[in-house]
Batch of 2 targets.
Target 1
Amino acid sequence: MKTAIHTDVSIFRELEPEWNLLVRRSTANLIFCTWEWQSTWWHAYEAGELFVVTCRDEEGRLIGIGPWFIQQVDGERVVRTIGCVDVTDYVDIIADREHTTAVFDALASVLAREVARYDRINLCNIPEASPSYSQFPDKLRQHQFDADMILQEVCPVIHLPSEWEGYLAMLDKKQRHEIRRKLRRAESEAVLEWVIIDHRHDFDAAVELFLSLVRKSQPAKAEFLNNRRNETFFRQILHVGQRCGWLRLSFLYMDGRPTAAYCDFDYERHILVYNSGLEPELYAHLSPGIVLLAYNIRHAIETGHILYDFLRGNETYKYRMGAHDTRVYKLIARPSEPRATQ
């Protein structure tokens, strides 16, 4: 196997023809690992020095990517994953599923050989189902690292049945009643319009409306978007998602007024609930956020999706909608202390 370290941004352009082909046959077939997401994040944040490691087999085929960078954090040089942490929910080593062990060993060897470049490794948001969680720490230990996996956050998900009534039956009696009650009340007390943005709509206007609802929904979200880099990334990733056919930007209008919005991504029959907005003072008694969410879940079922992923965070409403926890972990590693000679 041949490995190479890339520190120039041109690597994104060079790898574009191969990157997503590898993602699709990898153990990390995630929207957040695609070329589009990773390159968009890097161009928006440029958070340090690129440290992308590629692995190729003897025929030159790309079989692994360590999509990393080195960032200065409190006086230390830290290896992190492109996308980590605030705006990307899952990140991982991209390894051909037929060559996972060899790729992990090669990447651990590179990290051991290049220890002068950095002080520690902090790889965030690794899904618990990933081989990176179960295997990569051991590979690092074999190359003289101290490595630990630390629980970082939960990601509640709903495994979708084939029918709406089947979904409702999954809920406990109280929550099933609440969803039905809220839908009936909203539909009887206001004229509702549920919209998923497509080619018939003014996309730029929809993006502006969505961002305005995000800002209004919570002070913390408004503060987050006041950061120029965060807003730049959000705008760019919405346009990227639209071009790729991944974006599901939905709105609920009540009596002609926009009251709630969701930005979801549709990838590999999974709906990923990425962000939301709300007009908090408008029709609050009719629960527009829950009504829109229920419409979106029903639509996901009707269009044959298998998973509704709320991504990181343990907000109560996710569990009321029937979600159950999965987990993401952080890999922390440092070169082992030299052993004392006898």
Note: Residues 173-189 form the longest helix (17 residues).
Target 2
Amino acid sequence: MMKNRIISGALKIFFFVALIVILDQTIGYVLRVLYFNQKEGQDHSLIHSIKDSKEDVLIIGASQAQNNYDPRIISSALNMSCYNAGLDGGHSIIMQYAQIKIITERYIPKVIILEFNPENIVHYKGDYDRLSILLPYYKDYPEIRPFIYLKGPYEQVKLLSAIYPFNSNIISMIVYNTNSYAGRKRDIQGYVSKKEVLNKSMIGTQIEKKTEGVVDPNMVSALRNIIQICKEKNISLYIVSSPLFNEINEKQGPPSSAASLAMEIISTNKVHFLDFSYDTTFLGHMELFYDLKHLNEKGATIFSKKLSTLLIKNGN
């Protein structure tokens, strides 16, 4: 009698676990199809850059890349195809390294424009959590797994679930797989323009207190590895620091130790570095900015033209 109860209990547990696994795998499969079927939005931009991009010029970076570089202008000036693979969300250079690594194993672009502020090789809260954007690619792209493991020690266990890689994308998947995105602002070759204009009241609320951050060895390695990949694959790499809003009389301070280290790496490897952070064209011109760190559409147009001129002068 006792033995039968044990067997019966064990079978119930087995079938319950089996049901959970089947549901997880089934729902996960549906979410995977929905994710990779998106035709608009940030996820679509990442999907395109990783799976389908074949453009001559790729723009890589975080939100400043996404908002500040108009690929139509760069494409026309250079007579090359161009795609803006910038991603909103404060992603670190580790994310950009992951993108470049996986893209260049599929095809070799002629030019990569990396939006990067040399100050940003320091660790900020949430940097590794943001790597969750790569989770949908874990199954099909083994080379991306080391980046995902940086999120924490239990990622391999969590990824036994087919649902887990998509649980933060459900809303966007619904929006961009239905007509819900009708009327929403769409990107143009990955570029997302901003119409709004910075005003004085926004300047007062957005000023940041500058503190010396702690250099993150993984970010230093990411910068070195991006440079190495481009050298090995004969890709013209331009590291660009796009305009920041500064007042006309505001002077550029001395670089932090993190920025000095990043610049030493860039200089030693003889990589093109174009610094627009205090460019006089943009100093004091609130009408060219959306906020302190991002250009609006008017500013992006001017910046993209200036950048294109320099790229042509450098032989592209």
Note: The CA atoms of residues 35 and 78 lie 33 Å apart.
